[in-house]
Amino acid sequence: MPPPPHNIDSTNMAKPSINGRHLNSVEEDAHSKLVSEHIADFDLVDIGAKQESTSDDLKDVRNILVTGGAGFIGSFVVRKLVVLYPEYRIYVVDKLDYCGSTRSLKAVSNFPNYEFIKGDITSPDFMAYLLKEKKIDVIFHLAAQTHVDNSFGDSFEFTKNNVMGTHVLLEAAKANGIKRFIHVSTDEVYGEVVSRPDCPEDTILAPSNPYSATKAAAECLVKAYYKSFGLPILITRSNNVFGPYQYPEKICSKFICSLLRDGKCELLMDVPTMTSFVHGSGSNSRKYLYAGDVADALDIIFHQGVIGESYNIGSAFEISNLDLARRLIRLFGLEDKMEHHIEFVQDRAFNDQRYAVDCSKLERLGWRPKTPFDVGLVKSINWYREHADEWWGDISCALVPHPLKAMPTFENSQTL
Ligand SMILES: NC(=O)c1ccc[n+]([C@@H]2O[C@H](COP(=O)([O-])OP(=O)(O)OC[C@H]3O[C@@H](n4cnc5c(N)ncnc54)[C@H](O)[C@@H]3O)[C@@H](O)[C@H]2O)c1
């Protein structure tokens, strides 16, 4: 498990809440005891502080469903909600795709207000049953196919999981009188932002790759259920997210895991896993947010956001892919072998130059990112150093330049 947290003040963590129902003293004591027993399993900076103010209509919320909770960002959200809000029961539904792992939720597995359910959100019968059976009040919807590179290959999977999956959830939510449907989307739905200002939330969506197109399509459905049926939805659109627990296919975690393998792979000339691959010229830049800060934002948006609104979750920190590689190489103390650790490979089919969102609306709710980029990088490096090889099984296939999942073809289907 992650190393013990640095700034622990467990006394403020699991107080009975003014949100939802109050706990009786036995439940309260049991939760506090569990938090103290498992304190070494959490990074309490990431867990953060609970939201003490909440919309009036959320006072009797009891059951929360997190889809994709065994994934990267979802696991940060689940750990936070389980530890900070004993008055909520947190259900996780996840199909445990290649990038998901129940290890990411092990720290909360003994908590009575947590339950994991393996399942697929694209199944209407299953989702309808689950929402009814567990009397779900609130949904944090994070489950998705999330890797742009994969969407250049088997893009049908993206439409199935991201569009159909969202549609299925919306129908189940409509039938079950949900109080909040928090739909987690991405800054990529705006398309690249080169010679125009940072995008406010009412910018017309202009996605440019199959991943972002399916995220934008899912948003259209979410908004349609708000307009047509009054479903109490909120949408979030965040910059790139990084941190521990991220399957190492995305740039930060992939570079870190590649650099961690330096020395072990030197002889494998044709399996260049010791190198940080830079797509194209490396000039494409991204803004980064640490995952704990994104979980904070989702918590605030849930408790205080206005129904029907979208909220950008943005970072002021921007870095080109090439500079990110150089920064990590320096953090590893490998600057004398800088060129050895950088290899330029063919760019993606299409690669947006940059994304930029205006997040002043969320800042007005009191949110600010609290984790500086280098602090988040060091936390991530330490975590991957300890866990990368055990968390998801063999990750070598994720560390190649373009890990494309092939599209099923007519010829393939004939052999089935
Ligand atoms: N990672 C980022 O930089 C980033 C940035 C902005 C927005 N987002 C959005 O945040 C959400 C979470 O992203 P992440 O990086 O944590 O993703 P991830 O790939 O780490 O996790 C996705 C999880 O969803 C699960 N899942 C996928 N399809 C499912 C299905 N049909 N049924 C049940 N479970 C399913 C997977 O098993 C996995 O555990 C996504 O919706 C993504 O679009 C991510």
TrEMBL record:
Any one Gene Ontology BP term: nucleotide-sugar metabolic process
Coiled coil: none
Cofactor dependency: NAD(+)
Pfam families: GDP_Man_Dehyd
Domain of life: Eukaryota
Lineage of the organism: Eukaryota, Fungi, Fungi incertae sedis, Mucoromycota, Mucoromycotina
InterPro entries xrefs: dTDP_Gluc_deHydtase, NAD(P)-bd_dom, NAD(P)-bd_dom_sf
Any one GO MF annotation of this record: dTDP-glucose 4,6-dehydratase activity
Keywords from the named record: Lyase, NAD
Organism name: Mortierella isabellina
Protein name from the UniProt record: NAD(P)-binding domain-containing protein
UniProt cross-references to Gene3D superfamilies, sorted A to Z: NAD(P)-binding Rossmann-like Domain (3.40.50.720), UDP-galactose 4-epimerase, domain 1 (3.90.25.10)
NAD(P)-binding domain: residues covered: 65-377
